[in-house]
Amino acid sequence: MPESSAAYWREARQALAETDPVAKCDRVDALWAAVVSGNWQPACPSEPGLLACGRPGRPKLVNPARLAQRKLSTLEGRQALIHAVAHIEFNAINLGLDAALRFAGMPDAFYRDWLSVAADEARHFRMLNGRLQELGVAYGDFSAHNGLWDMAEKTAHDALVRMALVPRVLEARGLDVTPGMIQRLSKAGDERTVALLEIILQEEEGHVAIGTRWFRHLWLERNLEPDKTFEDLLERYFSGRLRGPFNVEARQRAGFSADELAHLETLDH
Questions:
Q1: In the predicted structure, residue 47 carries a pLDDT above the cut 60
Q2: Which of 35, 154, 191, 213 is least enclosed, having the fewest CB within 10 Å?
Q3: How many whole angstroms separate alpha carbon 236 and alpha carbon 243?
Q4: How far apart are CA 26 and CA 207, in angstroms?
């Protein structure tokens, strides 16, 4: 028989609060394996309270404008790029766990979906951290920014806002930029990293689709007009400004409507 939701809640909170990246990945793996085996009942309590989000003391977090641009033709440039993507994946572990813990009253499939995302992101982080070690550095050796988690905090009050803006805007940005990174790394001869990014790109498309699925669930439940709701949230949180070009094909597969994609194009100015 499955364990109680209190046990799930305890283990998931401990995974989110864990500061060591390797230990966090291990905790997520164990939690997801238990859910898949049917030994845990993923159900969010009605009052989640404060959630402690654990991260290591490094990397140093700075303003994005202070992050140096490095050429991928150099080893340091490739190290810095892989580190930046690893940092995104580490934050995405926390985002998946936070979504699976924060929002009460959702169907069980919601919690399972976001735990599955956390498990994928843990695997992605391990892949990239291993690649960093192959290249002679480690996670934390370069500075990073906190934009992804900042938006998680701004959207913590409402699952609809979180689904609209984190997976469907910030994480969807990976669908737009990763093909270019793959092309540049391939030109630089780093096929090992290219292979990892190709796996990540394919699986991140599924994560954006999960965001779309639950955004749709919530606007239907609240009887909202979806395209207008998405546009209003973009205006409120991003001041109507998003950078293209957009990976239209990947976004379509992840559930973006033609009207949403057309609106995104108007914001790229």
A1: no
A2: 191
A3: 16
A4: 20
- 51-70 pLDDT, tens digit per residue, is 788 899 998 888 777 777 77
Average pLDDT of every residue of the chain: 89
Considering the domain architecture, whether residues 163 and 123 belong to the same structural domain is answered as no
Tokens of 214: 């639950």
Amino acid (1-letter code) at residue 225: E
Site of tokens 């609060």: 17
Look at residue 178 in the predicted model and tell me its pLDDT.
Answer: 95
Q: pLDDT digits over 99-122, tens only?
A: 999 998 899 899 999 999 999 999
Query: Do 114 and 45 meet the contact criterion of CB atoms below 8 Å apart?
Result: no
Residues 175 and 42 in one domain: no
Judge if the upstream peptide bond of residue 179 is cis by omega within 30 degrees of 0: no
**Are 24 and 126 within one domain?**
yes
**pTM of the predicted structure, to 2 decimals:** 0.93
Q: Give the count of beta carbons closer than 10 Å to the beta carbon of residue 237.
A: 15
Last residue of a domain, one of 150, 185, 201: 150
The total number of structural domains that make up the chain:
2
Residues 237 and 167 in one domain: yes
Residue among 19, 93, 99, 30 nearest 56 (CA): 19
Residue 77 structure tokens: 């440039």
The answer to whether residues 200 and 178 touch, using CB atoms and an 8 Å cutoff, is yes
Neighbour-count burial of 17, counting CB atoms closer than 10 A to its CB (0-12 exposed, 13-18 middle, 19+ buried) = middle
Residues 6+ apart with CB under 8 A from 149: 53, 91, 94, 95
**Residue 96 predicted with pLDDT over 90:** yes
Same domain? For 137 and 197 the reply is: no
Same domain, 96 and 176: no
- Domain boundary residue, one of 125, 150, 175: 150
